[in-house]
Amino acid sequence: MDFYTVSPQQQQKLLEAIKQNQGNHFRFGAGYTDLILELQMQKQDDLTVINLAKLKDKDFTSINDSKEGSRIGALATMTDVLSNESLQRFPALIEAIESLASVQVRSVATVGGNICTASPAGDVSCALVALDAACEILDTGGKIRTVPIAEFFTGVKTSVLKKNEILRSVLVPHRKTTDRIVSGFIKIGNRNSMEIALVSFAYYILADSNGDVTSSGAAIGSVAETIKSTESACEFLMGKNIEHLTKTDKGKFADLVLEYACPISDIRASAWYRRQVLWNISRSIF
Amino acid sequence: VEVEVDTLTGKVDVLNVHVGQDVGKVLNPLGLEGQIEGGVVMGMGYALSEEMIFEDGYLRNPTFHDYKVPTARDIPEISFYPVETNEETGPFGAKGVAEAPLVPTPAAIANAVSNILDVEINSLPVTPEKVLKAICDKERDQG
User: Which SS3 state, helix, strand or coil, does residue A201 take?
Assistant: First the structure.
């Protein structure tokens, strides 16, 4: 494994580094929990790694609350998110991080890395899709464009990021305060840590004091080419009373979730298992 | 052993393991306990997740990425009841102890799963997929 590195410390230097490498083959490195493994498996010649670990830019590294919502810098580590008080109101996000790899990996792995790797099994990405987060992408001209995270992924390990762009932060929008939150992250694997999801399901459902659903988001991971937002299942819940869902309602919700899944069979699990489990768990959340 | 099965996913969690064993003359009590616990955990991997998967003669999971050994978060409470004896053929009456708890652990776990679900699972490892399949087949047979 042999590559050139450049370690910008300010945003301006970072943008310059990206600009200078437009003609080269380059990758970003932040926590290196995925990149080093990938480079070990596939040797790449003349590779430049733009090292983000030294970047001292608040836009990239901090977690802030603003009027629109909570903004998480792409370089915030999983541990940073776990220890942030205001993010505790998003149980799906917190549970996703708690199920991710191990304490050691969570201390260096970054939120932006999880998103930009664009793995269909990304735990944190799956939770962020359920939370309807927005990706804030910076280009070399210093301009920001915003893409809903559900539209960020275009396939296995591919995204809408262009070669002159970098993910700066994600914005998790505020919701009106409600009386009930039904939210969580379910990850199915063969063991309890250091596991890649066979199936994952993130959900964030809000209801008023009567129990009527006012807002709802859900996402599935590891069962399709990309993480998918299960919109029609969420629409089905709107206005329904969460306390009094019938068995048929729950079954219908699970059926609608399943419509978004087209899993593959591999050595870790069969397509049959992934579909069956997804149906079982999505019916069981209420 | 005592196990818990999630009937939605087929995942088996081992809650308690009790080991009673003839251990010969004990030379190092703490070392002995470590050996027994290690044997149980190795048996749990054998029972639940460790498998070499071959396709067309090629090993499909040659690294620990896909060959899953248990992690610290999978380990149950292990109670140990040693029976100290004198092994005449061993040094100072001692004998090897670490392999013994590996051997019956998978059978005990698979039997415990059969016991709660009333289904037979006749191959190792007892993966969530095999368990869920058995549960679904049984439900279908019973209508």
Answer: strand
